[in-house]
Specification:
Elements (H helix, E strand, L loop, with lengths): L6 H23 L6 H8 L3 H7 L3 H13 L2 H10 L5 H18 L3 H14 L3 H11 L23 H21 L8 H10 L4
Helix pairs in contact: 1-2, 1-4, 1-7, 2-3, 4-8, 5-6, 6-10, 7-9
Length: 201
C-alpha cells in the first residue's frame, strides 16, 4: 500500500532531502562551485522546491548547519558537556566521543561544508553575523567551561575564551583528519585536550 503524505509532511520530507543533498554537493564542489540546480538535482527535486523552502544559497547553508547541530550526535555531546559532572572525567569521555564520531566518517561532508561556509562568511558580513550567533553560545554562560579542569590552562580562562579555543581545535583537527589522517589521527584530539585540561604542576 502506497504511503500517503499530507502536504506538510511532503514539504518536510523534501526539505530534509534538500538539506542532505546540499551538504554533499557543497562539500564536493565548494560553495562557489556548486549551484542550487545541482542541489535540487541531487535531491531528485526541482529548483523551485529549493526556493519554496529557502531564500537562497546562504539560507540553505545555514539551514544545513542548524539541522546538523540539532542532530542526535551533537545533542549527545551537548548533554554530556552540561551534565554537571567532574571536568576531568568529561575530558576523557568527550575525547572518546569526538574520535568515535570522526572515525565513523558520518560527519566528513559536514566538516568540509562547515569550513567552506566559514571561509565564505569572512567575505559576507551578514552571513558572518548569523554564523557566529549559531556557533557561539548566548551571553549567559557559566564562568568556566565544562571541560576546563580547575588549575589547568583551560581552567584559568573565562568560558568564552576556552570555548573559542575548543571550537578551533575541533574544526582544525576535523579538517586535518580529512587532509592527512596518518599525521592527524582522531585519537590526537584526546592528546591535545588532555594537555589543555591537565592541572599545572
Amino acid at each position: 500500500m502506497t504511503e500517503r503524505l499530507t502536504r506538510q509532511e511532503q514539504r518536510e520530507r523534501n526539505r530534509l532531502k534538500l538539506l542532505q543533498a546540499a551538504e554533499k554537493v557543497f562539500a564536493e564542489r565548494g560553495i562557489h562551485g556548486a549551484s542550487l540546480d545541482e542541489v535540487a538535482a541531487s535531491a531528485g527535486l526541482t529548483k523551485g522546491a529549493v526556493y519554496s523552502n529557502f531564500d537562497g544559497k546562504e539560507d540553505l547553508l545555514l539551514a544545513v548547519m542548524r539541522h546538523r547541530l540539532g542532530q542526535e550526535a551533537r545533542a549527545q555531546a551537548d548533554r554530556m558537556l552540561h551534565s554537571g559532572r567532574d571536568a576531568a572525567e568529561l575530558v576523557e569521555e568527550f575525547a572518546d566521543h569526538w574520535a568515535e564520531q570522526v572515525r565513523s566518517g558520518d560527519q566528513d561532508t559536514f566538516a568540509q561544508m562547515t569550513i567552506e561556509l566559514m571561509i565564505h562568511a569572512t567575505r559576507d558580513p551578514v552571513l558572518r553575523e548569523q554564523l557566529v550567533a549559531m556557533v557561539f553560545a548566548p551571553a549567559e554562560v557559566p564562568s568556566r567551561h565544562p571541560l576546563a579542569v580547575p588549575g589547568s590552562g583551560l581552567g584559568d580562562l573565562p568560558y568564552e575564551q576556552a570555548d573559542a579555543i575548543l571550537k578551533s581545535l575541533d574544526l582544525g583537527m576535523r579538517l586535518l583528519t580529512l587532509v592527512t589522517p596518518e599525521r592527524c589521527p582522531p585519537e590526537l584530539f584526546a592528546t591535545v585536550l588532555r594537555l589543555l585540561a591537565t592541572p599545572k604542576a
